[in-house]
Amino acid sequence: MDNFQIETAQNVNLVQNVAGVGERILAYLVDGLILFVYIIGVSFLLSNINTFDMGWLAAMSIGLPIFLYHLLWETFWNGQTPGKAVLKIRVVMLDGSKPAFSNYMLRWLLRLVDISLSSGGVAVVVILFNGKGQRLGDIAAKTTVISEKKTISFKQTVLADIPDDYVPTYPQVTVFSDAEMQTIKNLYQQARFKGQHNVILKLSDRISSVMDVSFETKPVVFVDTVIKDYSFYTQQA
C-alpha cells in the first residue's frame, strides 16, 4: 500500500494511506454486482406491470439509478459506495478533509473518460503513475481514495513525522501515556476530517488543562504541536 504526506494550510502533516488499484477494482466489481442484482430485480417487477409507457418507466427505475449510483452514494455516504465500504476505502480531499458536492460531481463526470469509454484502462494507468491514488477525475477534483484499514503498529500511529531540527514547545506533554496520546491523535484527526471545530476546541482546552499550560495559537495548531512534541520526546527516549 502506497502513502503520501501532505501539509495543510495550518502546517499540519498528514499521511494518507492510498487505496491500491486492486482494492479499487474489487470495490468496482462489488458495486457492479449490486447493480446487476438491482437490474434483475427491477426487471422482474416491471415484467409484471402492464403499461403503454414501459420505456419511460424502465429508464426512470433502472437507467437513472444506475447512472447516478456512484455520485449519490459518495455524496450522501461520506465518500463511499457499498463496494468501497466493503473494501474499507473512501474518497477524500488531498488534505484529508471531506469533499464538497462539486468535488464529487467533477470526479463523477470524468468517469466517462477514466472508466466508461476505456473500460477502466485510463484510470488504472493514471493511478499507477500518479503516486497519490488519483485517476483523472481525482486530479481534476483534487481528491484521492484512501484505505482505512489498520496497517501500521500502535507505536507508529502515536508518532508524527518531525524534522531533524524540530524544537519542541511543550515539555509538559510527557504527562500523557502512549494510549492517551493515541486517543488525542484519533480525536483530532477525526474532527479535522469531519470539520468539527468545536471538538478540536474542547480537546485543546482539555489538553491545556491537563498539561497546566496556556496557548495563544489556534486550537488546531496547539493540538498539532502537542502531538509533534510528544513524538519528539518519545523518539529521544
Could you give a quick summary of the protein structure above?
The protein has 237 residues and is mainly alpha-helical.
Q: Would you write up a description of this structure?
A:
The protein folds into two domains: 3-147, no CATH class; 154-236, no CATH class. With 237 residues, the protein is mainly alpha-helical. The protein contains eleven helices and four strands. The longest helix has 27 residues, at 21-47. Residues 7-13 and 151-156 have low confidence and may be disordered.
The major β-sheet equals: 2 strands, antiparallel
Beta-strand residue fraction: 5-15%
Q: Spatial order of the strands in the main sheet?
A: 1-2
Helical fraction equals: 55-70%
Protein structure class: mainly alpha
Give me the number of helical elements.
11
Mean residue pLDDT: 85
Beginning-to-end CA distance, first to last residue: 30 Å
Task: Indicate how many domains the architecture comprises.
Answer: 2
Give the C-alpha Rg: 22 Å
Q: What is the H/E string?
A: EEHHHEHHHHEHHHH
Q: Total number of β-strand segments?
A: 4
Rough shape? Answer: elongated
List low-confidence stretches.
Answer: 7-13, 151-156
What is the topological layout?
Layout: E1 3-7, E2 13-17, H1 21-47, H2 54-76, H3 82-87, E3 89-93, H4 101-109, H5 111-116, H6 121-130, H7 136-141, E4 143-147, H8 154-158, H9 178-194, H10 197-211, H11 219-236
Antiparallel strand pairs: 1-2, 3-4
Helix pairs in contact: 1-2, 2-4, 9-10, 9-11, 10-11
